[in-house]
Amino acid sequence: MEDHNNIFYLTHMIEQITNENIVRFSKEFVYPIGISTIIVLGEIAASGPIKQIDLADRLGYSKSSITNIANKLANLELIRRIYDSSDRRTVQLEITDKGYEALEESKTLGDKIYKELFSILSEEELLFYIEIQKKLLAQISNNKRLSF
Fold it and tell me: In the chain, pLDDT over 70 holds for what percent of residues?
């Protein structure tokens, strides 16, 4: 009998759930962007104009990932770049009206997928699941800090 109580089995289950959510969202969302890009767009909306380096630090993404995501969002006119007149190297990202609309559409779709996926859980189970995820993420973050 195979041992299902190990990191590989657990990781595989988590990947299956995550992949299903990503595929479903990508198929139904009208813009050609994924969940990571929506997270960046949401952070830009929440923060107001923000420098790419600050965005990378805040979200834990690499600078090159943020650059690629920002390029995609700018090409879709969901954000705009604001250049500092005294220093053209200083660039901030700001969400556009079209970006706010896309963000709202993503939230509506996300809520629909969330409700369908988690409707099998009671409210108590869902809260417990969320707390477990937070606890595991905190442990991962703590381990990263200790390893440097």
Answer: 95
